[in-house]
Design goal:
Distance between the termini: 16 Å
Largest sheet: 7 strands, mixed
CATH topology of the largest domain: FAD/NAD(P)-binding domain
Strand order of the largest sheet: 8-7-16-17-18-15-19
Structural class: alpha/beta
CATH class of the largest domain: Alpha Beta
Oligomer: single chain
Amino acid sequence: MKKIAVIGGGFSGLGIAYYMRNRKDCEVTIFEHSDRVGGLASGIRADGWDWPVDRVIHHWFTTDHWALDIAKEIGMGNKLIIKDTKSSCYYNGKIAELDSPISLLKFPFISLFNRLRLAFGMAWLRLDKNFLKYEKETSFSYIKRTMGNEVFRVLWEPLFYGKFGKHAPSVNAAWFWARVHPRTKSLAYVEGGFQTYAERIVEVIKENGAKVVLNAEIKKVSNKGEKFQIIVGKNKQEFDIVVLAVPLPVALQLYDFPVDYKEKYQPLRSIGAQYFVLELDKPFLADNSYWLNINDKSFPFMMVAEHTNFVDKKHYGNKHIIWVGKYLDYDHDLWQKDEKELLEIIIPYLSKINHRFNKSWIKRSFFTRFKNAQPIMPLNYSVKIPRIETPIENLYIANMNHVYPWDRGTNNALGLGERVAKIIKNKLLA
């Protein structure tokens, strides 16, 4: 019996255990440092809510086959919510829908000529399947060259700065391609939210012999000979195979990798995410938009999404739920603020979007801050990512760097889990 340790109970770690579940010659143990599985997609439970709310906004596209297939396999296929949603942009004090060819033709913030350039540019990215050629050029350069300066200035520049901050000009165009290529107007969610989905995966993998250890703070992984030692609390456990399913900076600290290995991959950067979940007693996006991009670099957040414009508010005590989010570098002033300060900062900006909104609408607020939430993807990133197989025999790394060119997300994390499981299975067969 091979003992496999997966450090990290996000969806990559869950995916590894799920795709290893039929191997009777393996025992998988997931170690998660927090009190719940799910990682960035874990949820908040609150009095009066039937369902948890994801701490960071999550949904699936209808092309997300790993997540949707697993939902069906674990008995949640009949709990999928699939529907068309409305996405809009806030620019120059106004809101306009932008999520379909018709809304694009009506979009008021860009000239007709440049709207046509945008339409052709987006159509091309949807059709082209070769992402590698795009990583040789920055997104900024590619968008300006193919869609024009006006489209770049109005639509993309503020969103890139909201997503990547000062790193925005260096992000390669393959990341932009991957944001457009699989996109669907119809989105999918699951009854009970992503926390419930993650916990159902845990039930299935436990039924197949896996173990999940929560509140497991692991500071070091070491090895003597063919066995790895992991200290959890005061207990030391031995494993034959270890997967570090944690962000790359964390993985590089957990094991004493060779100096040249660390020096090669330490320059790969990630930034953090901070999100508010606000419970309101009135609807915020009254035009029924689900997602609102903030195309204004002066705002302290880059998006607002109204969860209860997608799923029924009855699951949340008939209150209205919104996410307000932004990605930040750790030296950014907003990253230094505490929850109370930040809430006071964002309230006036929420009032700019909905002039009727005021602080009294907020019944409860929940704040989450994650480090290493978004990798920065510079030119030729595909050759800079570490391999899943490390120089250490039977020690693997699996994190958001490995889903490139795709963006972070539970579907891609589960797909990564399948890749890692295949590598391990092939190694066991060799």
